[in-house]
Write a structure and sequence with these properties.
The complex is a heterodimer of chains A (756) and B (444).
Chain A lengths: L8 H18 L7 H18 L4 H20 L6 H19 L5 H11 L4 H5 L16 E4 L5 E3 L6 H10 L6 E3 L6 E3 L2 H11 L41 H16 L10 H10 L12 H6 L26 H9 L26 H14 L12 H4 L16 E6 L5 E6 L5 E6 L3 E6 L4 E7 L4 E6 L8 E5 L2 E5 L6 H12 L16 E4 L5 H5 L1 E6 L6 E4 L5 E5 L8 E5 L4 E3 L9 E10 L5 E9 L2 E6 L4 E7 L5 E6 L5 E6 L4 E5 L8 E3 L6 E6 L5 E6 L3 E8 L9 E9 L9 E6 L6 E5 L3 E5 L1
Antiparallel strand pairs in A: 1-2, 3-4, 5-33, 6-7, 7-8, 8-9, 10-11, 11-12, 12-14, 13-14, 15-16, 16-17, 17-18, 19-20, 20-21, 21-22, 23-24, 24-25, 25-26, 27-28, 28-29, 29-30, 31-32, 32-33
Helix pairs in contact in A: 1-4, 3-4, 4-5
Chain B lengths: L6 E7 L12 E4 L4 H16 L10 E5 L2 E2 L4 H8 L7 E7 L5 E7 L4 E7 L2 E6 L3 E6 L4 E6 L5 E8 L6 E8 L3 E8 L4 E9 L5 E6 L5 E6 L3 E6 L14 H9 L4 E3 L3 E4 L18 E6 L4 E6 L3 E6 L4 E7 L4 E7 L4 E6 L3 E5 L9 E6 L5 E6 L6 E6 L4 E5 L8 E3 L6 E5 L5 E6 L3 E6 L2 H5 L2
Parallel strand pairs in B: 1-5, 14-18
Antiparallel strand pairs in B: 1-2, 3-4, 3-5, 6-34, 7-8, 8-9, 9-10, 11-12, 12-13, 13-14, 15-16, 16-17, 17-19, 20-21, 21-22, 22-23, 24-25, 25-26, 26-27, 28-29, 29-30, 30-31, 32-33, 33-34
Classes of the chains: A alpha+beta (756), B mainly beta (444).
């Protein structure tokens, strides 16, 4: 039996365990309770000290041998050579204990415990303090007392530097642990480490047994390269079945004999008949009916889990105070936050039956049964996706951005402005009774014409061969030759006006609605530039030229059926295009529209209070009537292309009409905070602007595509400010420069501003 | 004390070879300012040129990353958020002295054009007159002749040695008038009337020899005129007396027709293959050399015209309406003023790459006048509707060298024909004169 030495230490320990059991059981203490063991050991030690006065270690050696002898007797039946065997084991044990005793984990201490009984007393001497926390000895440099009452000095504890040096130098540092009981440092053996690792993984502490060996699935469905068994395949697995053959033979015989009839194929008619007779009643409503309820099952809403309030013994903060309780009772049952009063019972036994249980269950059932459950269709829409993709204003340049010039000179609000077709001059009319002519580039006032009343509208003749400005003052429309620009043009214009003779005497037959008065050459009027005066019956609100520069139209708000008059310069003829009143006419605009084949269509747009009517002047009929959806239209402008109209209204709105699209606004822009006074298109750039009483001009990019499928692109690009609001009026008029992307604005503060 | 202040490594370089120093890095304290740096460079220069000869004390300006150093290096580093641990590359240039404000020439009305020649200044005004001034601010003469505001003026011929000078004025009345001025008698006569434009004459420019002039007009055309005054035989070399007589008789003014008309869509005067030219008003004209002129226009383009072949040779597209252009024969580049707040530098020779070589942004209103220095290749003036006249160095596009705030209202024209005279004319009825004399200020 000497071969014990060949085994590994742990195995030996395990075997020793089995050997030691009876002794351990016979001992007073349980395995787990280490302190008892120690006390018992110490008792023994005490006895020893009584008998012998030898060195503690020596005596313990003797004791050990005695004890071993005792235990040896008990196991003698099995092992006659127990003595020697145990001797060797005890040696091993010493090592074991040295290493394993001081593990922090309880498991490790348990492992120690097992060996504690058969270990020598020498070990136990190290701890004489019993089962007390070691911290109690923290302040002392000893740890209990030995038999002679001498202090057992604590092993030397290194300071931080020692610790660090150990850490750096000692290769076993990582497995050095401090003994909880003696404060000694011990190095764990390789086996201990393995054991600990195993225990940490939750495995069996014994090394030999694998508690949960890895499962190898031999007989899986997977086809393996090599067969699991060596058995050859049965013959029956690759020959036809005899019993099937017999069965089939019987059936064939039965059919032959007429005992059995094979199923007959159905004729198409029969199939038809079948279909007619039997059909799927719910085929078309399968999805709507019961099936759907199963498919789209909505689980019942769960009851909230009980919390602290529902507890029979809730924390005191959940209990209601008197006031809260009163308040709770006063509340309507529906309003209560909790539908019961939290109550405290000292123990579960005292909790009475819940009186409202049935009620609550019933209500819950009603909830589940009666309350319609429906799946809410959640729309996961990114709000940014809903915003139409508009280009950035930066990409839409050029447009006016900054104020460049201020034209100062007028003493009262400037009501109207108009640049000349070449863009070199600007005319403005003001409430101070003057018409001023400006040089655009320098803001120099070159000429002032006194007209003795407030000017309501100015319009430069769009024909570049003429140099004329129409000015409406009170009931008069003046045709002024400002004498600016080409001298030849100026003189030609004068000559053209003078060359008129009342040749067509026939015109006098008809009663003209207005009086044409030509200024005499010697009159002061003529020198100031006024060439013609056209006296209207009522106050003239607006005057506008036709593109050719021969026709012009005037608007009298109170003119009833003569609200709109069309005049012709060369023949000095005026006529009223409408036979009856169309309502309160706000403004009119001509538009010359080029259609295919070199033809031109002359359109007249008439904006009344709510509608805009489009007339074909040649055919003399109305083409379209646009509904503005505005309360009071203030202004209107026609896109150079002719298919788009912008309308400004006193109720702060701009309406863009696409005539091809609809008679309702394609887009309504509500950017202004005040009444819109004027709207204007640029003749070259895709720009339009609106001037408002809030003192701002809003410039928008309005691109009209020649492709009919594309709707106009409207992007507000700039708010221009600068005019001071005077008498609650802001910007009275705005007009684009005919060639540059600049805009002029006339303000109630008496200035004209140029934004570039 | 000096040891405590942090130092920074700097490396000096210059494009003015006469002042070149070795490009070894120097360690200078960060507190150092322009004067100290200038002293330092002077010291280095004196060391290196001790053998060759003394240069004299020169004031320098220092450019760090295209910006002039105004305060101390430290402040510059802080402003630019630069570390003081890298070697700073500093370019230094001879310091431009501050222009000295001098007389203010009071007019009766807005002054729309101004040009200097020698000791004299010619200005055009909105009261339909042109005026002559001495550079010391003395009003010499008021010349009524136009029937509309004068828009442009130019000296044709001015020589200190000869008593007779000639100049031209262009006006809203669609004519340009050529005048002869006798300094001895202080009499002015209109000798030529150039009519042909169908709109206001907005700019006029005379070539270097003074025998040709170009006018640009709102009617989109550019017209070339001969200034040669070939009056009938005897009075050509004579004094003005016969002219005066004739003028009294009312028939002395010769009518002149243009030698050449360029641009203008409709008129086909002598154009068989000329392209359409400008589509908007011509706002400024400059001679590039004896045969080429450049025009700036409201149609957002600059066009180069070859006068020999009478055709357009190149087109530079801009983004804004051009209001003025100036060409420097020294740097062979154009600066333009447009209807926005930027001054842009164009190179008429290159056609590839970015058209705008550089832009100078400091004004807050439209820039209406630009003028190169006649002697310095890096300097130019710009005047703007924001009432400020600015002196720029092309090497420092981020900030101007000097701002001159003497006008009370918008500036309408600037001129720097005479190297010593920087002129600006404005809406406040004044021509402001600044004396620019680098020679006196450079050496102390």
């Amino acid at each position: 039996m000497r071969d014990y030495g060949g085994l590994k230490a742990t195995e030996q320990a395990a075997k020793m365990n089995t050997l030691k059991r009876p002794h351990a059981a016979s001992d007073t203490s349980e395995e787990e309770e280490l302190p008892d063991d120690y006390t018992s050991n110490s008792d023994e030690n005490m006895e020893d000290t009584d008998s012998e006065d030898e060195d503690a270690t020596d005596s313990s050696d003797d004791d050990e041998s005695e004890e071993d002898g005792d235990s040896g007797k008990e196991v003698n039946d099995n092992d006659p050579d127990g003595d020697t065997g145990i001797d060797s084991i005890s040696e091993v044990d010493e090592e074991e204990l040295n290493s394993a005793v001081n593990q922090d984990s309880s498991v490790a201490s348990k492992a120690v415990n097992e060996y504690a009984e058969d270990s020598s007393d020498e070990e136990d001497i190290k701890n004489t303090v019993g089962n007390i926390p070691l911290e109690w000895y923290k302040e002392y440099d000893h740890l209990g007392y030995d038999v002679r009452g001498n202090k057992i000095i604590k092993p030397q504890q290194g300071d931080g530097i020692d610790e660090f040096l150990n850490k750096m130098e000692d290769p076993d540092y990582w497995r050095t642990v401090t003994d909880k009981w003696t404060g000694e440092k011990t190095v764990l053996s390789k086996e201990d480490v393995e054991l600990i690792k195993k225990l940490q993984k939750g495995g069996n502490p014994s090394a030999s047994e694998e508690m949960y060996p890895e499962w190898i699935d031999f007989f899986s469905g997977e086809e393996m390269m090599h067969p699991v068994t060596n058995r050859p395949m049965d013959k029956r697995s690759f020959i036809p079945s005899k019993w099937e053959r017999l069965k089939v033979g019987k059936m064939v015989h039965a059919i032959k004999m007429g005992w059995m009839k094979p199923r007959q194929q159905k004729t198409p008619e029969e199939e038809e008949e079948d279909k007619r007779k039997r059909y799927d009643l719910w085929s078309d409503e399968a999805e709507d009916g019961i099936l759907r309820r199963y498919r789209q099952h909505i689980p019942a809403p769960k009851l909230p889990l009980p919390g602290h309030v529902e507890s029979y013994n809730p924390p005191p903060e959940y209990l209601l105070t008197k006031e809260e309780e009163e308040k709770w009772t006063e509340q309507e049952p529906e309003e209560r936050r909790i539908n019961f009063l939290p109550q405290k019972y000292s123990c579960m036994r005292l909790v009475p039956a819940y009186s409202k249980f049935i009620n609550e269950r019933f209500e819950r059932c009603l909830d589940l049964y009666l309350c319609a459950r429906q799946r809410k269709m959640k729309m996961n829409v990114n709000p940014e996706d809903l915003i139409p993709k508009l280009p950035k204003p930066k990409d839409l340049q050029p447009f006016p951005t900054t104020q460049a010039l201020v034209y100062k000179g007028h003493e009262d609000m400037v009501r109207c402005i108009c640049p000349d077709p070449s863009g070199q001059w600007l005319v403005s009319g003001s409430d101070d009774g003057t018409v001023r002519f400006w040089e655009v580039a320098t803001a120099r006032c070159l000429k002032t014409v006194e007209v003795s009343s407030r000017v309501t509208c100015v319009a430069w003749n769009p024909n570049e061969k003429h140099c004329l400005v129409a000015v409406s003052v009170g009931t008069t429309v003046m045709i002024i030759n400002p004498g600016l620009g080409d001298k030849k043009m100026v003189s030609d214009t004068d000559a053209m006006l003078l060359s008129y003779q009342n040749e067509a005497g026939s015109s006098s037959e008809k009663e003209l609605p207005v009086d044409w008065v030509q200024s005499d050459l010697n009159v002061k009027d003529y020198k100031t530039g006024v060439r013609l005066r056209i006296e209207h019956p009522k106050e003239v609100a607006q005057v506008t030229w036709h593109d050719f520069g021969d026709f012009f139209a005037t608007v009298m708000h109170e003119g009833q059926r003569q609200a709109v008059l069309v005049h012709r310069l060369t023949t000095r003829h005026s006529q009223s295009p409408f036979s009856k009143s169309k309502g309160w006419v706000q403004c009119v605009k001509f538009h010359q529209r080029r259609t295919g084949g070199g033809k031109t269509m002359t359109m007249l747009y008439v904006a009344t209070q709510r509608f805009v009517r489009q007339y074909d002047l040649v055919k003399q009929k109305m083409v379209k009537k646009l509904q503005t959806n505005c309360k009071w239209v203030s202004s209107m402008d026609i896109h150079p292309g002719g298919d788009n109209v912008i309308v400004g209204s006193f109720d702060c709105k701009n309406a863009w009409f696409d005539l091809d699209l609809s008679t309702k606004p394609y887009q309504t822009l509500r950017h202004h905070r005040g009444a819109v006074r004027q709207v204007a298109y640029h003749s070259r750039y895709p720009l339009f602007a609106s001037a408002s009483d809030d003192g701002s001009i809003i410039v928008c990019h309005g691109k009209v595509y020649s492709d009919l499928l594309l709707n106009p692109l409207i992007v507000p690009v700039k708010v221009l400010r600068g005019h001071a609001i005077t008498k609650r009026l802001g910007v009275m008029d705005c007009a684009f420069h005919p060639k540059q992307p600049w805009i002029f604005s006339a303000g109630a503060d008496g200035t004209i501003r140029l934004y570039s | 004390m000096e040891d405590d202040t942090p130092h920074v490594q700097v490396k000096f370089r210059t494009k003015q070879q006469q002042y070149a120093v070795p490009d070894t890095p120097f360690s200078v304290p960060v507190e150092v300012n322009r004067e100290k740096l200038s002293e330092l460079v002077n010291g280095i220069l004196q060391e290196s040129t001790e053998s060759s000869g003394h240069v004299g004390h020169i004031q320098f300006d220092f450019l760090i990353d295209q910006e002039f150093l105004h305060d101390s290096l430290k402040k510059h580093l802080e402003d630019k958020d630069l570390t003081s641990e890298v070697v700073l590359d500093i370019e230094y240039v001879e310091r431009q002295a501050a222009p000295r404000p001098e007389e203010s020439l009071e007019h009766d009305d807005w002054v729309s054009a101004v040009q200097g020649a020698g000791q004299f200044i010619l200005s055009g005004s909105y009261d339909n007159t042109a005026r002559l001034w001495s550079s010391s601010g003395q009003a010499l003469m008021t010349i009524p002749g136009h029937s509309a505001p004068v828009k442009c003026v130019a000296w044709i011929h001015h020589d200190e040695s000869q008593p007779v000078s000639t100049f031209v004025t262009g006006s809203h009345d669609q004519t340009a008038l050529v005048w002869q001025w006798n300094r001895d008698t202080n009499e002015v006569d209109c000798c030529l009337s150039c009519s042909g434009h169908s709109a206001s004459v907005d700019c006029v420019v005379v070539n270097s020899t003074g025998d040709l002039m170009c006018t640009g007009s709102w009617d989109r055309t550019l017209k070339l005129w001969s200034t040669a005054y070939t009056a009938d035989g005897e009075n050509s070399g004579d004094t003005d007396r016969p002219n005066k007589k004739k003028r009294r008789e009312g028939s002395s003014i010769q009518q002149r027709v243009p030698v050449l008309t360029l641009g203008g869509k409709s008129d086909g005067m002598d154009t068989d293959s000329t392209p359409a030219g400008h589509t908007e008003a011509v706002s400024a004209v400059q001679w590039l050399n004896t045969e080429t002129v450049v025009t700036a226009s409201w149609d957002h383009t600059l066009r180069l015209w070859d006068l020999q072949q009478a055709k357009e040779t190149a087109l530079l597209q801009g983004t804004k309406a051009f209001l003025d252009v100036s060409f420097s024969p020294l740097s062979q580049t154009l600066v333009t003023a447009s209807a926005d707040r930027h001054v842009r530098l164009y190179d008429p020779r290159s056609s590839e790459g970015a058209v705008v070589k550089c832009s100078f942004t400091s004004h807050t209103g439209w820039v209406v006048g630009v003028s190169w220095s006649p002697t310095r290749e890096h300097l130019f003036l710009s005047g703007s509707y924001d009432t400020v006249l600015k002196l720029w160095d092309t090497r420092s596009p981020k900030a101007p060298l000097y701002d001159m705030n003497r006008h009370e209202d918008r500036i309408l024209a600037v001129d720097w024909t005479v190297p010593q005279l920087m002129l600006s004319a404005g809406v406040d009825n004044r021509v402001n004169v600044f004396n620019y004399s680098p020679a006196t200020s450079a050496t102390h």
